[in-house]
Design goal:
Layout: E1 2-3, E2 6-8, E3 11-13, E4 20-25, E5 30-36, H1 40-59, H2 62-78, H3 80-90, H4 95-112, H5 115-118, E6 123-128, E7 131-139, E8 142-146, H6 154-165, E9 169-173, H7 180-191, E10 199-201, H8 206-214, E11 220-224, H9 227-239, E12 243-247, E13 252-256, H10 262-274, E14 284-290, H11 293-304, H12 326-342, E15 345-348, E16 363-366, H13 373-376, E17 383-389, H14 392-401, E18 404-405, E19 407-411, H15 415-424, E20 429-432, E21 448-449, E22 452-453, H16 460-466, E23 468-476
Parallel strand pairs: 1-5, 8-9, 8-11, 9-10, 11-12, 13-14, 13-19, 14-17, 16-17, 19-20
Antiparallel strand pairs: 2-3, 4-5, 6-7, 7-23, 12-22, 15-16, 18-21
Helix pairs in contact: 1-8, 2-4, 2-7, 3-4, 3-7, 4-6, 10-11
């Protein structure tokens, strides 16, 4: 039984609160470690360490910061197998999926390596007689990230790469369900030459979260998680004067038009609906079948489900692993248990008996409608619902009426319909024949409606904007002999 520790001031620090949480191997269903749950005092110590390091880090040259990030990128790439294995051991996703997560995290480090260019401001000369104006982008100081269990490498790198590159010190509160990958990232950052205190990790639960949200030394908070918690994070952080970006839940719809390639659409639905056991904020959980394509599509998806290999993530043959905890599996299963009573048709039943681990098989529901719990709620598991509508217009209205607006996709051969969809759909990320339209690292990630609280998306250019504040400098170097008193408002002409 491993006893994990916090990471503060460049070293491991044992927890002192006396409270710990369990860490499981989801494929075996056994506890493998304990993680300390930080007290308010422990959070204060991490913020203090970050504050001590922030000023010196911010005053260093951009080239020095970039050099650390380049080394960090190479070390993360070299440790990719270890990081993936750590994700699989505590989250449960299959190794190939975990490796993909690490690769997408690397994309964000690579973007941040361009920080000397990304922090270039603007300059205008002679805006008035002898007057110049320029802007500079300055770091905020100490910023914090609160990250979810489903991407314990990628999402922390969404935040920390840009935050640190911009000259901030960073305090990370990772999920207590799978905390080990973040500790490995911290060790790699130290090896890359990141000064002690610039990156700190405190494990914990709601006590640690609220301590960060209320701490006067934290200037900004980034969050990814469920909508109720995202709303709490945004409201609490804003009330305490912080800049906040809080990504919430999702109910991503994949619209399939009658002219779509049914086989390709079915493949995409399987991949996007059941990948990582549905524990993705960009997972497709609703397929909207338009017109006469419904029967063909449901049959095609159902025919493919038996070929999905469900098993331990460490097994190279496995395509889908377990859910992260027994409690989460019970929650997901409860939706399947009640689906038929709500009026849905159970086409493929993923409930079954497993000798060990937190497994649940792929489930397919047809005849799903708004008002059913399986439609209205974010299930966050391997449960795919099919909604049938008659027209394209009904499909778009359905998507737009949903309170979530994270991602949406359309499958069609009609370029005009696809172009119309990308303009009319109310979602922050849109895929055209792409079921999981997660932007690459040099764009930004963020939804609409109840999928995002705050006015800033995450990583990419929006990440640079979030972790800096602009300062506009107006300068004039007059000849002392021409100086005079003028109480009028400054004019440019």
């Amino acid at each position: 039984m491993r006893e994990l520790e916090h990471w503060v001031g460049g070293k491991s620090v044992a927890g002192t609160s006396g409270r710990v949480g369990p860490v499981y191997n989801p494929a075996r269903g056994v506890q493998t470690a304990t993680v300390p749950l930080a007290s308010v005092d422990e959070v204060d110590a991490a913020v203090d360490a970050a504050a001590d390091a922030a000023a010196e880090w911010a005053s260093g040259s951009l080239s020095a910061r970039a050099a650390v990030l380049f080394r960090f990128r190479d070390l993360v790439a070299g440790a990719a197998p270890d990081l993936a294995a750590a994700v699989t051991a505590e989250h449960g996703k299959v190794l190939s999926d975990a490796a993909g997560e690490v690769a997408r995290g690397l994309d964000n480090i690579e973007f941040a390596c361009g920080i000397p260019h990304l922090l270039k401001g603007s300059h205008s000369t002679e805006v008035s007689g002898g007057v110049d104006v320029h802007t500079v982008l300055e770091p905020l100081g100490v910023v914090a990230g609160i990250t979810p269990f489903n991407f314990p490498v990628m999402v922390p790198l969404w935040m920390m790469a840009n935050a640190i590159a911009c000259g901030n010190a960073f305090v990370l509160k990772p999920s207590e369900k799978d905390p080990s990958p973040s500790l490995l990232l911290a060790e790699l950052a130290k090896e890359a030459g990141l000064p002690d205190g610039v990156l700190n990790i405190v494990h914990g639960d709601a006590v640690a979260v609220d301590a960060l949200l209320e701490h006067p030394g934290v200037a900004a908070v980034s969050f990814v998680g469920s909508t109720p918690i995202a709303r709490h994070v945004y409201e609490t952080g804003a009330r305490h004067g912080k800049r906040v970006q809080a990504l919430g839940g999702a109910k991503n719809h994949m619209v399939v038009l009658p002219d779509a390639d049914v086989g390709a659409a079915a493949d995409a639905a399987i991949s996007a609906g059941y990948g990582s056991a549905g524990e993705r904020c960009m997972a497709v959980s609703v397929v909207v079948a338009v017109g006469g394509v419904g029967d063909l599509l449901v049959d095609a998806i159902a025919a493919r489900v038996p070929s999905v290999v469900v098993g331990p993530g460490s097994d190279p043959e496995s395509q889908m692993g377990p859910l992260v905890t027994a409690e989460h599996r019970a929650r997901v299963r409860a939706y399947v248990d009640g689906a038929e009573a709500e009026g849905a048709r159970l086409v493929v039943d993923g409930r079954g008996e497993w000798s060990e681990g937190f497994f649940l098989g792929c489930t397919l529901l047809d005849g799903v409608e708004p008002g059913m719990r399986v439609y209205d709620d974010e299930i966050f598991g391997p449960v795919l619902g099919v909604v049938r509508v008659d027209t394209y217009e009904e499909a778009v209205s359905l998507v737009n009426a949903n309170p979530y607006g994270n991602g949406s996709a359309i499958f069609t051969r009609d370029g005009g319909a696809a172009r119309r969809f990308q303009h009319e759909v109310m979602a922050g990320m849109v895929g055209v024949n792409v079921a999981i339209p997660v932007p690459v690292g040099f764009y930004s990630f963020g939804g609409w409606k109840s999928s995002l609280f705050g006015d800033s998306a995450m990583y990419g250019p929006e990440g640079i904007r979030f972790y800096t504040r602009p300062k506009v400098v107006t300068s004039r170097w007059p000849d002392p002999s021409t100086s005079e008193i003028d109480l009028g408002f400054p004019r440019t002409r």
